[in-house]
Design brief:
Layout (H helix, E strand, L loop, with lengths): L2 H5 L7 H10 L11 H18 L7 E9 L5 E9 L10 E6 L10 H15 L1 H4 L8 E5 L1 H15 L8 E5 L22
Parallel strand pairs: 4-5
Antiparallel strand pairs: 1-2, 2-3
Helix pairs in contact: 4-6
Length: 193
C-alpha cells in the first residue's frame, strides 16, 4: 500500500500499534463527559512507559526535573532527559520537556508564553542540562505542542534568541486553513475530515 492509501484506510493498524493497543488498551475517548484529570494521568503513565518500549532502561537515561520561572512569576516544571554519562547514545542529545499550564484552567496565550519562557531558560542554562546548543538547538512538538513549538520559533526569531534555534520539528500541527491549501495538494489534505 502507498502512504496515501494507508492514510485513507481508517481500518488499517500498523503491527506496532496493534501490539501496543493489545497490551495497553486504547486511550480513553475525549468528549463532553471525559474526566480531563483522569485522562491526563493515563497519558502521563503511558509517557513514562515510552523509554522501555524503545529498549532503553532506567540506567540508560538521566532524567531530572527543574522548576523554572515564567514571565508572570509562576514556576513551571521542565524535565530534562539525556543519555546517562556511561551511555550518551549516538547523538548525545538532550530533551527539555515543558510542563506548560493547560486549558481550560489556564487561558490563552499563557501556555504559549510558558513554552517560550522554557526555550529562553534552555538557551540561558546550558550548564544545567549539559547540552551544547552550538551543535543544535531544536524546538519540537506534537499536535498542540507543535503549534506552540511553531509559535516559540517565531518568538525566538523575533527576539533574536541567543544562541539561535537551528531547527524546528512539528508533528501534526494545525497551522494551515483548508482554504489556503494549493489545489494540487487538496486530495492529500485530510486533516479536516
Amino acid at each position: 500500500m502507498t502512504a496515501m492509501e494507508l492514510m485513507k484506510d481508517p481500518a488499517y493498524k500498523s503491527p506496532e500499534l496493534a501490539k501496543l493497543l493489545e497490551e495497553r488498551g486504547p486511550v480513553p475517548s475525549l468528549d463532553a463527559t471525559t474526566d480531563i484529570h483522569a485522562l491526563r494521568e493515563t497519558l502521563r503513565q503511558r509517557k513514562l512507559e515510552l523509554p522501555a518500549a524503545g529498549g532503553a532502561t532506567a540506567s540508560d537515561i538521566d532524567e531530572t526535573d527543574h522548576s523554572i520561572p515564567t514571565r508572570d512569576g509562576t514556576n513551571i516544571t521542565v524535565r530534562i532527559r539525556r543519555g546517562s554519562k556511561s551511555n550518551e547514545g549516538p547523538f548525545n542529545g538532550v530533551a527539555v520537556n515543558v510542563d506548560y499550564r493547560l486549558a481550560p484552567e489556564i487561558k490563552f496565550p499563557i501556555l504559549v508564553y510558558d513554552c517560550f519562557d522554557a526555550v529562553r531558560w534552555t538557551a540561558a542554562h546550558a550548564g544545567v542540562h549539559r547540552g551544547d546548543l552550538t551543535k543544535g538547538f531544536i524546538v519540537a512538538g506534537i499536535s498542540a505542542g507543535a503549534n506552540m513549538a511553531c509559535t516559540a520559533s517565531h518568538l525566538a526569531r523575533d527576539e533574536k534568541l541567543q544562541p539561535p534555534l537551528t531547527g524546528v520539528y512539528l508533528s501534526i500541527p494545525s497551522l494551515l486553513s483548508q482554504a489556503s491549501v494549493p489545489d494540487r495538494f487538496k486530495e492529500e489534505y485530510l486533516a479536516q475530515e
